Every structure is written in structure tokens, then in C-alpha cells.
Q: What sequence folds into this?
């Protein structure tokens, strides 16, 4: 089976930095599956996430590598080709919905926007679709006319997810989507993402510093440290038979965070 | 336990904040703490757990006399801290130290590490220059740093090392208790484990009591003798750590425990989602 997404030997350096931020990273992801990207701060995981949509900051320089998504060479594609992919075939959600949502646009309109931009639908139709999406992600549809600041952190993340999945993307890139949330809210958001994935059949690149969270979401896990892949494998193998001491250290840290009664 | 009063005790503490009446919001009172009682005995570690907005940091600030309670009182070895003056207030300030969440914000970037760690000695008039230097070296070494680090600036250190510096500063005045407000939340997970180990060692070697504030129940379990669970300004459950985590009585505690992500519990590894 051809992979939906393949990353080969991706190497990205920031101007003025001593070493590359991403150093020869390769992985592949099939349709409908989830790849977990786990690492601590500075591991390069967020730079990889941005590269998947070719959204690197200006100081970043691509040294080598290839990213292929469903037949498109992401790094060589025209801006027009990328614009039609982003938000339609590949969507992204971030740690901070406050930073990703437009503060002066109602959440209903932000969720409606992809329908207008990519599908040329009328705002009237798009807003009706947005209300259905709000309901699906667990926000009362009458909140469509609210601005982001009027929602709680968990609701903002739900609204961002609604906008991301509006056009049923083939790939959702989720970069630390629950890190800023309380643990009870985190659980609801993870359940929501799993439910939506089952409905839409989208693949996910799920990025987190928290190996326990990643293990609940991912079919395969790629462990990154200092820009490089430390270990990669099926989720069960990574958590039950890690080969690298660094993976073991992350596992120990994750186990420490579970009170003994629940630890495995 | 009954013969000496606890280091700290909060009795019926209530704290309200007036929300700003801004352009969009109505001005209304938010009750951050509602009739809260808590006791910290000598040498024990009490974990105060709860989610954001539960009131745990406000309680820490009230206990430290950084903000005043609207109702109720805080006792330091049996004396109301609102009534402490002069030498008694200084004794309280020395006996109860605090470590904050963000070691990038809590260390003055313009001072050397030595000056930062020595500051409590200067404030409390402890020792001469040579004595202070000796104590700074000992404090740095006790947190796993080198005596020579005293001459360096905080920006030369990683987040975990900075938190060690903040802990050294808390230790140097030989306190009885340290209030730690989410001391590991800003750190990478592998660094968190190291700091947890350090705190466990120091608690024994320095016979410290900790009031350990955290949203992380696993960390609370690893460190605490007793646990108090906060929710919306109330303490909903308190008890021995094994009891609270093993058989929670309050439904909110049970919900918190059930929400903790567990390695390999996902459907993809065959566990229950």
C-alpha cells in the first residue's frame, strides 16, 4: 500500500544555529492511521509538523529531504497547489487555539470560511454547515456568533478542531493539541479526535511531549530527540519493548505521572 | 503530633476577587477560596491537587501572606499570621519558603547565581561574607550544582538547573517548610523526574515539610504523604495519599483519576480507550 504521507531524510536548519533543528528524519503514514511524534522541547517535532504544510519560519532552511503527500511533492509544489491542499486535504491544529483563531471573527464564521474558500459555497450555506460542525464537536450551535475570547480554553480547542475537519481532510496534523488543557478536558478532546477520525477516516500526525497521551492515539510512534529520530515502531512495541535508553526514560517519566493504582 | 502545633494551618479561609468591569464583562465577585481548611505538620508532604482555576495557587499565596484572606485565618505554629510583626514576621518569612513554577521568571537575570541564592541570608542578616559564601556553596551542592556556579548568571542554565537554583535559595535559610507551586510544570518530563528525586532526597536530609501544589496526580502520588483535592475553591477530599488515590470518595477526585492518560491504554494497543 502506498503511504498517504512520506517524509524522507528531512533536514532543516535555522540560520545562525549550530546544528540542524531536524536532522535526517524519515517516516511514512498510511491512510486513516495515526503516527505519534514524541519528544521533549527542542526535539524538532514542531518544526517537522510545520514542514508538512511547508509553513516553516523565514529563518529555516531546508537542507535536504522530501515530503510526499498523496502524490504531491510538498517541498516542490507551487504556492497555488499548496493553498488548495492546506485546510482542505491537510489541516492542522495547534497547542494554543487562542493564537490560531482570529480574535475579531466569530467562531461560526471561522468554521464556515473553509467552505467558502475551498468549495465556493455561499456564506449562508457555509454558516449552516458550521453550526452542524459546532454541534458535532460538542459546542451548542448558538455559540456560533461568539468570539473566541467568549469561550473557555477547551471550547476554543473544539472550535479549532471543527474548522480543521470541516472539509474532511485526509490528514490532520495535531501539534500538542491538549497540552494547554486540564486533564479532564484533555480526555474529552482526545475522545473527540478519535471519534472524528473514525467518522472521516483521516490520518493523523499526533505530536506531544507526553508519551502516555501519544500511546492512546497512535498506531506507530516516532521518538525524536535533538532533531533526530531515536526510535520508531508500532505503539505496543515502543511501550513494551523499547530499544533505546532515551525511550525508556520517556516511558519512566510517563509512568511516574500515573498514580500507582492505575500504573501498568 | 498533638503536642506541637502544625507549621501552617488554614482555618475557614475565604478569598474573593472582584473581576474588572471591563468593556465587555460585568464586574462580579469570583470566590477563589470558599471556607478552606488545611493543615501542614512538621516533616510531612501535603500535595494540593486540582485543575486550573481550582484555587490552589491562591491558597498558597494566602498561606504565604502574599494576599490577605477575606475571612478565616492562617496560623503559623498556632499564631495568626495577619498579626505577626517585626521579628515574629521575619521568623515566619524565614521558616516558610516558596518555589515558583517558572524559574525563568523567578530568578533575577541581573544577579549572579551566588547573589540570588544568598539573598535570604542578607535579608535575615545571617552570617558574614565568608559564612555566606560557604552556605551558598553548600546549598548549590545540595541541589546537585557546583559551588563554582555561584559566579555565573541564571541565563547560563537550563530550566531544570534554574529550578535547582530556586530550590537552593529556598533551602539556604534553613526553613521548616517549602511551598512549591507547580515547580515542575514548566520542565521537560525527563527533567521533572530528576527534580522529583531531588525534592524527595532533600525532604529527608533537611527534615522539610512540603506543601506541593500540582495539577499532576502522578507527581503528587510519588511525593506526598497526604493529598488535598481542590475543585472550584473547595477542598473536596483530603486524606492519606494511598487512600485518596486508591479509593477516592469524592466523584470529582474519581473523575480526575480516570482522566489521567495511561501508557498503552488506547484501543490501538488493545487496552480500553
A:
Amino acid at each position: 500500500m502506498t503511504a498517504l504521507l512520506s517524509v524522507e531524510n528531512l533536514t532543516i536548519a535555522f540560520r545562525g544555529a549550530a546544528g540542524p533543528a531536524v536532522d535526517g528524519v524519515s517516516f511514512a503514514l498510511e491512510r486513516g492511521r495515526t503516527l505519534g511524534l514524541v519528544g521533549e522541547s527542542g526535539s524538532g517535532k514542531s518544526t517537522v509538523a510545520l514542514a508538512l504544510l511547508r509553513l516553516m519560519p523565514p529563518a529555516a532552511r531546508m537542507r535536504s529531504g522530501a515530503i510526499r503527500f498523496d502524490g504531491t511533492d510538498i517541498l516542490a509544489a507551487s504556492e497555488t497547489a499548496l493553498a488548495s491542499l492546506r485546510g482542505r486535504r491537510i489541516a492542522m491544529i495547534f497547542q494554543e487555539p487562542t493564537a490560531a483563531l482570529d480574535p475579531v471573527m466569530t467562531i461560526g464564521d471561522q468554521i464556515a470560511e473553509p467552505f467558502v474558500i475551498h468549495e465556493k459555497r455561499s456564506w449562508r450555506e457555509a454558516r449552516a454547515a458550521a453550526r452542524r460542525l459546532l454541534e458535532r464537536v460538542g459546542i451548542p450551535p448558538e455559540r456560533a456568533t461568539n468570539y473566541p475570547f467568549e469561550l473557555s480554553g477547551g471550547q476554543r480547542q473544539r472550535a479549532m478542531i471543527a474548522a480543521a475537519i470541516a472539509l474532511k481532510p485526509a490528514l490532520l496534523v495535531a501539534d500538542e493539541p491538549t497540552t494547554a488543557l486540564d486533564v479532564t478536558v484533555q480526555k474529552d478532546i482526545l475522545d473527540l479526535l478519535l471519534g472524528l477520525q473514525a467518522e472521516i477516516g483521516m490520518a493523523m500526525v499526533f505530536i506531544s511531549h507526553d508519551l502516555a497521551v501519544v500511546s492512546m492515539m497512535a498506531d506507530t510512534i516516532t521518538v525524536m530527540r535533538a532533531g533526530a529520530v531515536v526510535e520508531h515502531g508500532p505503539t505496543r512495541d515502543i511501550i513494551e519493548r523499547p530499544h533505546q535508553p532515551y525511550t525508556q526514560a520517556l516511558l519512566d517519566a510517563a509512568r511516574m505521572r500515573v498514580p500507582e493504582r492505575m500504573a501498568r | 503530633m498533638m503536642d506541637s502545633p502544625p507549621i501552617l494551618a488554614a482555618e475557614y479561609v475565604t478569598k474573593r476577587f472582584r473581576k474588572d468591569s471591563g468593556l465587555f464583562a460585568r464586574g462580579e465577585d469570583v470566590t477563589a477560596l470558599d471556607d478552606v481548611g488545611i493543615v501542614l505538620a512538621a516533616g510531612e508532604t501535603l500535595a494540593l491537587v486540582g485543575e486550573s482555576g481550582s484555587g490552589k495557587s491562591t491558597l498558597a499565596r494566602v498561606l504565604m501572606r502574599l494576599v490577605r484572606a477575606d475571612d478565616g485565618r492562617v496560623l503559623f505554629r498556632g499564631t495568626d499570621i495577619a498579626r505577626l510583626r517585626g521579628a515574629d514576621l521575619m521568623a515566619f518569612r524565614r521558616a516558610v519558603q516558596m518555589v515558583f513554577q517558572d524559574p525563568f521568571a523567578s530568578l533575577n537575570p541581573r544577579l549572579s547565581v551566588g547573589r540570588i541564592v544568598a539573598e535570604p541570608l542578607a535579608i535575615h542578616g545571617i552570617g558574614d561574607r565568608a559564612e555566606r559564601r560557604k552556605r551558598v556553596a553548600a546549598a548549590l551542592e545540595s541541589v546537585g550544582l557546583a559551588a563554582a556556579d555561584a559566579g555565573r548568571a541564571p541565563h547560563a542554565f537550563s530550566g531544570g538547573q534554574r529550578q535547582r537554583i530556586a530550590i537552593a535559595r529556598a533551602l539556604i535559610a534553613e526553613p521548616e517548610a517549602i511551598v512549591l507551586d507547580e515547580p515542575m510544570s514548566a520542565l521537560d518530563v525527563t527533567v521533572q523526574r530528576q527534580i522529583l528525586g531531588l525534592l524527595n532526597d532533600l525532604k529527608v536530609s533537611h527534615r522539610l515539610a512540603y506543601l506541593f501544589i500540582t495539577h499532576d496526580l502522578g507527581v503528587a502520588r510519588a511525593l506526598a504523604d497526604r493529598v488535598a483535592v481542590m475543585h472550584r475553591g473547595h477542598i473536596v477530599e483530603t486524606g492519606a495519599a494511598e487512600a485518596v488515590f486508591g479509593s477516592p470518595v469524592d466523584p470529582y477526585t474519581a473523575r480526575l483519576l480516570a482522566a489521567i492518560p495511561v501508557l498503552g491504554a488506547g484501543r490501538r494497543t488493545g487496552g480500553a480507550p
Notes: The first strand of chain A starts at residue 5 and ends at 14. Chain A touches chain B through 41 residues (CB under 8 Å). The two ends of chain A are 34 Å apart (CA to CA). The domain at 5-262 of chain A is CATH 3.40.50.300 (Rossmann fold).
